[in-house]
Each structure stands twice: as structure tokens, then as C-alpha cells.
Request: fold
Amino acid sequence: MSPTISTSSEANGNVSAETAAQAARAADTGLQSVTFAKALNTALADAMESDSSVLMFGEDVGVLGGVFRITDGLTKRFGSSRCFDTPLAESGIVGMAIGMAMNGMRPVIEMQFDAFAYPAFEQIASHVAKMHNRTKGKMPLPMVIRIPYAGGIGGVEHHCDSSEAYYAHTPGLKVFTPATVKDAYLMLREAIDSPDPVVFMEPKKLYWTKEHVDLEALRLSHETALVPSTEGRAAIARSGTDATLIAYGPSVSTALAAAEAAALEGRNLEVIDVRSIVPLDDATICESVRKTGRAVVIAEAPGFASVSSEIVARIQERCFHSLAAPVLRVTGFDTPFPAPKLEKYFLPSVDRILDTVDALQWEEKA
Reply:
């Protein structure tokens, strides 16, 4: 089921009958309307409450609560020794986290914006990713690098990069990117619990989206292991039979909207939410593609040498004899991220996805 997204009409009080009915049903079951940002904030607080070795630091994450307020209230609740501000030095932030993780702590750090992490990339690629292997398994690094990423907020370059391919290409790193409020909570809890370093990619445009969830129930289900791990497990966001749309992070909601529009044209599209880029769930992706025979991979990042191109390659290798058409992609263009007024042309859209679906060789050649 697609998440319940807040809209401008709702903000103005023009709530539809369907939305009101959903809210009533949610109230009856104890669910609350929760934002993506609130789910992340609660996950951090719950992790810090359950494990004193978990701490949070980065630029402006203390008193201010972070640029996107993901760490709001954590310093007040846990003190400045558990959630604190750092100098504007990303390499130093990561370096300090490495030392802490080597000495029994579980640091969670925020890079503030995607491209701001680039000064720390040497630390991440040379030390974070390699320490476990370098020490022959004797020294894991349980740390999480939170990176708000991708577009959809009208930002400029250095604030809207899709940098997931750099981390996915670096052996030794796990790479997670949630697309729903529920997954935002569960995946961040799992990332913090992981004995290995996780690059946690947070789609900025989703911070203000909402779903009806029970955060307390999620906490209990995670801490009692009642829900399956999301690591290495894609999710079927929408079932279908005619073609498979494969997306992750910020592109999942666009893929779902495209599938809804395609249904009006008589096409039944399945949508796969990758969730865990590394490790990647080949099994779920390939099972869907073998069923439908057609696939489109959707991502905001430029297409060349990308996560989307890796997914295409793996489908071609594993599902070749099940394909009725070549696997196609809808991605950002191979250019730097554009100015805000041009952003809508750069990002994957419902129209671009539907045009690509139309190109999947639906008619048999004579």
C-alpha cells in the first residue's frame, strides 16, 4: 500500500472524505499520522534509550536539532554528551566516529546534505569500509552515516546530489534507503544495531510525507524481533502482472503514482521498493521480472555507471530468457544537478515512466 501523503489541499483544511475515513480508521486502531522525519527522530531516541553506547553528532544536530530537525529534542533528553554539535569538518566527524566505533561505541553521524559528505569520502572509503577486513574480522565498525540526499526540495547543487553509487561501489559498506515512514523507523533501528558500517540515505523530499503508523508497536516489534529484517530484502510496494517498476528511496512514490496512472490505461504494473541497495535483494527483483517479463528501473541519480545500471545488468544476467523486451531505465540526466526551476525536468516523472513503459515492445514483431 502506498503511503498517505500530505497535500496542499489537506494543509488548507480541504480534507477529502476518503482521507477523513482513513483518519477515522487509524484512530480506531491506535494509529497516528506520523511524518518520515518523526519516524527517524523516534528511531534515534529509541536506540539511544535502549543502548547507552549509541550517540548522535554532526553539524547543528544538537540544540538546533539538525537542518531538517531529525535530531530535535535529543540533546535536551539525553544530554550534550550523547547528542552534540561538531565543527564544520566532515572528515573530522567521520574520523572521530571511527575512533569511537573502534572503542565500543555506536556513533550515528549526520552529513547534513549529500554533497557535504565528499570531504569525508577518503575516510569512508579507506577506513570505515576496510577496517573489518583489514583486521581479519577482529574489529567491526558499528556506525551509521546518515546522509540526506536527492532532489525534490528545490535545492541547488551540493544540496541535492544522488551519491548512492559511490558508497554502493565501495566493498565493506551497507547502503540503506527507506521510502516509507514505517521503513524509516525500522531500517534506521536495524542500521544502528548492525555490527558493520551503514550509509543511511534519507530522501529529503520524503521528510514531510505522512503515514498512519503506530511507532510504539514498531519499537516493540523491532526490539522483540517480531518483524523480518529489512536488510537485503526488497518490498513489493504494489502487485502487478504486466511489467515491473523497480525503484528505491525518493523514486518509489513516483513509481507508485505511475503505476496508478497506468492502471487507468489498462496496464497492471508491479512496483518493487529496493530498500536495501547493499546487500541487494536479487531474488525478489528477479522473481517479479520473471513473472511480468518486462522491467523499468527508476532512479533520480544520473544513469551512467549507477545503481540503476547495476540492477539492469543483474536482471539481464539472471532473467534473460524470461524477458519479453530489453530492460529500460528512467533516471536523472548525466549532468550536474540543475537549478531549482529546472529540477522537474531532471527528475524522473510519471510521464517519463509511462512513456518508457510504452516502449517495452508490447506488440509481437511479424
About this structure: Residues 36-50 form the longest helix (15 residues). Confidence is low (pLDDT under 50) at residues 1-15, 22-27. The chain has two domains: 29-223, 235-358. The radius of gyration is 20 Å.
